[in-house]
Amino acid sequence: MKIAYDISGKTALVTGANRGIGKAIVEALLHHGAMKVYAAVRNPDSANPLLEHFGDMVIPVHLDLTIPESITALGDRAPDVQVVVNSAAIFKTSTPLDARAIDALEMAMKINVYGLIRMAQTFAPILAKNGGGAFIQLNSVASLKCASNFATHSASKAAAYSITQALRELLARQGTAVLSVHPGLIATDMSSTAGLAGTAAPPSVVAEGIITALRSGDFHLFPDPMAQRIGNAYRSFSENVIEADIEEYRAEKQ
């Protein structure tokens, strides 16, 4: 089910585009030949540095993943999109035993999972109309490995990863490449908040990895050294279970 994709000459949309990994993805897309990028952020003014650097190749647009109408409006604003990169997320942390665990998980699910579903529902028809394209979801190694102090975040990312697997199967039917990105320790505000030990890789590692993975038709990307260790251990399971055609999982024909 590999679908290779080249972003050269394409129109892309990146959520969470004003900083960190999202900003690096915008820069990499344009560096590798994308024609135009919609930079989707809650405050369009926060994307001004990208606008100043790239001119009219960047179009700042409003998006709030907690507001369904905002996502629908974005679909109307960007009907020419061929590549969607859903990078926006929230890092809402709690252990399962904290009194605030349910509140933290509800907020994480609202943005990291419900936001993903609504983005897919809005843009899958647009991608189909524009030739198939690609849908890239920023998940995390936290979707595979849970640490007790940010269990609610891991739970939301595990759910997002499950949805991404479903999107791979569903969107392949319309010729859309789907890529699940699982960064580990990246030099962003989110990693700093997590308090993870080790040497963080720059966001550009994720951005460049996305370009390469799309060209290869890969479903998973483990871009940085920490993620690669986990990805190497996970590879056999992924090939034989996640990416495999398991007969018992096939829906019966109606």
Automatic annotation (TrEMBL):
UniProt keyword annotation of Oxidoreductase present: yes
UniProt xrefs under SUPFAM superfamilies: NAD(P)-binding Rossmann-fold domains
InterPro entries linked: NAD(P)-bd_dom_sf, SDR_fam
Keyword Oxidoreductase: yes
GO molecular function, one term: oxidoreductase activity
Keywords assigned by UniProt, alphabetized: Oxidoreductase
Record family assignment: Belongs to the short-chain dehydrogenases/reductases (SDR) family.
Protein name per its UniProtKB record: Short-chain dehydrogenase
